[in-house]
User: Which sequence fits this backbone?
């Protein structure tokens, strides 16, 4: 048993999502979205380094010492998997760990709208799950892959850095590939995937132009591509996909994206007030012919109004999703107000409406 495992067990017992170990500070847990210090001594750099190196693969230690940061996965059988990031900081070494449950939650477990589950049935195209860091994108993506695994006789390839949720092949055949171990990069893995007879390709993160270009190519050549982006809304997701390309290519990419895009799910996590835990509010855009025309014509500013008129297709705006959670008393009105786009809608629910200086 590694010395650090005691912290992971505490993390699991407390229901924490993240663990921070930093030289010169006490350990910190993120519980229901908020950071809480552990009653423990401040960590010394040398002892922390020895504790962290104990669980890191040798090749990852080498990368860390050369570059100053590295990602990998660590597993405690019977407990959970952990996504690890080591980094150098002013006082020495630091590390952040995210717990990945060993049991994969289904769309029903997560309370996702029925339309999200139906995304697993799409024969081809591009489905994007977006949101800020720590918003549960990987969990939602895993639920969609799990649904496809249960219902489709297909070949699923996942490309991640590192591998997070581990799926056991059911009706589908699943192959997990980890960047840095099984493949050089996301783009190299995507290029290879096109020759590996895939039906569904899951890309853990689209980080650069080449990866985005290859994902678009795969989605337009008969494959279902599931991927994540660090964007906060459906409209910003479309803009991000196009703006990463040189101006001379953007018109062509706009047409390619309009043809291949199937859905964007943009989510934000909230702390629950009805019970322990967190809940996601989802903005959902389904690529109807009208939405595709907006993408093709560069009129992404009209997408929010399209979400309002597309409810029969399962579309919803982020503000509508937040409002439902507030009205059901699942999240606090103050929390809903703080993350809403049209804040005036939420003012009647606040006991002490704040003066938002950003709106002045």
Assistant:
């Amino acid at each position: 048993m590694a010395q650090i495992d005691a912290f992971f067990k505490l993390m699991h017992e407390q229901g924490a999502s993240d663990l921070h170990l930093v030289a010169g500070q006490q350990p910190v847990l993120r519980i229901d979205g908020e950071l809480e210090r552990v009653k423990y001594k401040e960590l010394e750099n040398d002892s922390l380094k020895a504790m962290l190196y104990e669980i890191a693969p040798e090749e990852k230690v080498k990368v860390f010492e050369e570059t100053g940061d590295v990602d990998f996965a660590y597993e405690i059988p019977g407990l959970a998997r952990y996504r690890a990031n080591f980094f150098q900081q002013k006082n020495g070494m630091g590390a952040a760990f995210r717990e990945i449950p060993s049991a994969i939650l289904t769309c029903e477990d997560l309370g996702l709208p029925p339309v999200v589950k139906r995304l697993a049935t799409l024969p081809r195209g591009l489905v994007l799950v977006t949101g800020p860091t720590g918003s549960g994108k990987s969990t939602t993506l895993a639920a969609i892959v799990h649904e496809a695994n249960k219902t489709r006789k297909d070949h699923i390839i996942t490309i991640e850095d590192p591998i997070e949720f581990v799926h056991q092949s059911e009706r589908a055949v699943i192959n997990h590939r980890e960047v840095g171990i099984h493949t050089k990069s996301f783009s190299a893995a995507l290029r290879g995937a096109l020759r590996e007879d895939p039906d569904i390709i899951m890309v853990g993160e689209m980080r650069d132009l080449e990866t985005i270009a290859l994902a678009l190519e795969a989605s337009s050549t008969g494959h279902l591509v599931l991927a994540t982006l660090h964007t906060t809304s459906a409209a910003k997701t479309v803009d991000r996909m196009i703006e990463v390309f040189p101006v001379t290519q953007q018109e062509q990419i706009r047409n390619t994206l309009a043809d291949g895009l199937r859905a964007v799910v943009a989510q934000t996590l909230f702390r629950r007030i009805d019970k322990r835990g967190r809940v996601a509010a989802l903005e959902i855009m389904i690529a109807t012919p009208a939405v595709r025309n907006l993408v093709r014509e560069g009129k992404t500013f009209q997408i929010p109004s399209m979400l309002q008129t597309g409810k029969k297709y399962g579309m919803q705006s982020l503000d509508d999703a937040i409002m439902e959670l507030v009205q059901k008393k699942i999240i606090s009105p103050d929390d809903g107000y703080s993350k809403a786009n049209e804040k005036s809608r939420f003012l009647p629910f606040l006991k002490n409406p704040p003066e938002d200086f950003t709106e002045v």
Notes: The chain is about 35% helix and 25% strand. Residues 137-151 form the longest helix (15 residues). The chain has a mean pLDDT of 94.
